[in-house]
Structures are given as structure tokens and as C-alpha cells.
Amino acid sequence: MEKILAFCGIMCSSCPAYIATQEDDDEKRRKIVDEWNSKEFPLKLEDINCDGCLPFAKKLLPFCNECTVRICALDKGVENCAYCDDYPCQKLEFPWSMAKDAKDRLDDIRKTLGK
User: Fold this and answer.
1) What is the dihedral sign for C-alpha 25, 30, 36, 40?
2) Less packed terminus of the chain by CB within 10 Å, N or C?
3) Residues near 107 by Cβ (< 8 Å), separated by ≥ 6?
4) Which residues of 88-106 are buried (b: 16+ CB within 10 A; e: fewer)?
5) Number of domains composing the chain
6) What digits encode the pLDDT tens for the residues 63-112?
């Protein structure tokens, strides 16, 4: 499977929702709903469809459509946040609180850019 990196540094291709979608596996979708469903982010089985956080992705989780990081990165036309002149910014705090390794990935990319 091709590696897909979200704008915030989360590895989409390792995400259970992405994997369940690519494998069209409803049992995996059910497990995700059981684990991720909350008052803040209510989920149903049919919500668990995601092609990764890419500009051309046709299917995204409901909260990904509203993600301020994704919206900002698309507006700025950057490959991911490491390429942004404002990196790091406050918008990244929430996704990084869920995926600690996301920041490390972007920091590593940023180093290769000489910024």
C-alpha cells in the first residue's frame, strides 16, 4: 500500500479508517465506530470512508472535511504543513495531541527543506 501523509503529519495509510475503506471491510468500520464515536464527533458505520487527506480525496471522515489544518493547507497549496512558512502553528495542536509521531514526521521533512 502506498504511504499517504496528511497535511498535519498523520500517516493516513496507517489509519484504521483508511485501511477499512481501501479493504471495504465493514467489520473494521464497526470497530472504528465503537472506538471513535463520541458526543463531539458522532460516527455511524457509513461515515467510515476515507481515501486519505489529499487534495483529490473523494471520501473523507466527516470531521476531516471540517479540519482547519486541511482547509488551511489546501488554501495555501502546500504539500503538507512542513512546507508552510507559518510552520508550526496553533492549528496543529489538536491533531498532534492525538498522534504524537505526526509532529516528528513534519519536523523531519522540514529539516530536509533547510527551514
Assistant:
1) positive
2) N
3) 82
4) beebbeebbeebeebbebb
5) 1
6) 888 899 999 999 999 999 999 999 999 999 999 998 889 999 999 999 99
6 in any annotated domain = no
In this structure, are residues 76 and 84 in contact, taking their beta carbons and an 8 Å threshold?
yes
* Distance, CA of 74 to CA of 68 (rounded, Å): 10
Asked whether residue 89 is domain-assigned, the answer is yes
Q: Which residues contact 6 (CB under 8 A, 6 or more apart)?
A: 12, 52, 53, 69, 70, 80, 95, 102
Number of H helices, E strands in the chain: 6, 0
Q: Which residue has the cell 499517504?
A: 4
Q: Which structural domain, as residue segments, surrounds residue 38?
A: 12-112
Domain for residue 91, yes or no?
yes
